[in-house]
């Protein structure tokens, strides 16, 4: 169990929650099965046949099962998929003996495709009407109780987990198990006690009992997380920080006077919040979220200028050198002479804005380090190079982190601890976060939201281009790009990978559609042949050749470059590529050339996802858009529509209509509202990994809690956490909760919460 499902203790086993319940007599719909994934289902046997194999010794037993009962009183409503599936057993004489027409059984195995039909090879099975301990799934107190179906693997099947859970219950002395949920909380919500909750989680007498048990454990999880976050916030609020009050007639006031536009009401409101936070003797810890193009950078710059006016330095940490260089250039342009103190033509009452990146020439780096250490540089913009031990700040007062999810916890922590006093922290994100998710993930941060867009922004029109059903549209894509460039605008072509080391397929995108569509079945045939060793040499060779077919892979920047070069519509267009494998000077030169309008078409990867600001770029084509997540697509789309001209984004896919990945791109095409898309994103992926995302790729910490579904539970738990900590700050009188928090938060999560 430890190897298969990471279940090491009895506690781990009892916390392994059934994925669903199946009523006895009810069958599982085959429509819900995913190809190439392990599945556990309840089905009825239609027929069993055994025959000798032709090309090898032994026999094969084929069991046809159905998700439609032959008895009307047990019939379920099936979807549009086939209602029968064939299971293949090799030399499995017990299957031929134990399975017969009309038998209901639990089947566990990998679902694959053979001749266009779903199948399983040598699945584990357990008849539901047998008498043996495992086969009968005799873990219920009542034969009419629903059957738990657990997350399982081929080696550790659902019924074996159920048997292990039954054995584990006999080993637990419940009087010695501390309950993390205080009695008052459990009573207030009508939850069962802890032993009953565990029994109903694994051996429920009915569905209602199971859902109530799960609600108790979700509430417990929410309370543990919120208690840790509230405790963290209160600890941060006790740390000392240098107050940075506003300075009348300082650089900030002069900057506001020279702004060529009016701040939006939202920008002013958030600015007032930041002014108040920075004036306090305890560090600001604020998350600033706003949709793409909402004007977060101006708000952050005003906060940095307030810090400079107060005699401190501000650091802006960007995720990439391209973005750091762009921030540096845009801040200098916005400030003008105010950013050139000490230089000819600079304002003597201004400050200096310094860029520090890892690829800078040694002489420029030394000069930047000296200005940072001496305090000449009021604003420092950089990447992870700012985190080097060689970087010494004169008086770091404010840290602004752009796109937090791209930095590790330790990196942010190192910069924040650069001075004797804790600097104020402002985290910016253009990835909209629903309120309950922000409460769950950033519960130790104050949250500000920039709503709306600054004036002058034109809406972006988004279309899904389905090459599967409309292969001729490929030529039109290149024609539209040419039209945009001839109108004086610029274009992005985005690919999901670089592909420098891959062979470029000698085919158009439309020609690759058929190969891509056939790939899953061909791959399934190949895998099935390998598993059973029954395939002929011809079929194996055919499968392997198909698996290597270039059309099965993702579109790369290299492939796009060759398609652009071969396209008559784009003949003579100035084109360049931008991706992560380029050297930093080459990336900078390419980006500067594009920003200056010297490059008409930029073929790139997601290196342009964040922060790149070229107002003249009005047309974007995202190829293989189904390979990207909703948030990524929304960020990419935000690179256009930044000027006065109307903009268009095309999401190109070779997937067939109805493919699950098309739900994502359809959602993006349907709206430009980032918060609405964030809700859709979390709904599609069930937001189980949101805390993991916040930890820069750590494993999921949320077990049962769902931020979208459990709004009331999270809000209630947060209030209860504050009430508990008001009377018991150290949790000495709530030792069950304290122990649970310690066990719940692994080392990485604890560091995340501790460092903010």
Automatic annotation (TrEMBL):
Domain Helicase ATP-binding, residue spans: 277-450
UniProt keyword list: ATP-binding, DNA damage, DNA repair, DNA-binding, Helicase, Hydrolase, Nucleotide-binding
Secretion signal span: none
Region (Disordered) residue spans: 526-551
Domain of life according to the entry: Bacteria
Recorded GO MF terms: ATP binding; DNA binding; DNA helicase activity; hydrolase activity
Protein name in UniProt: ATP-dependent DNA helicase RecG
Source species of the chain: Kocuria subflava
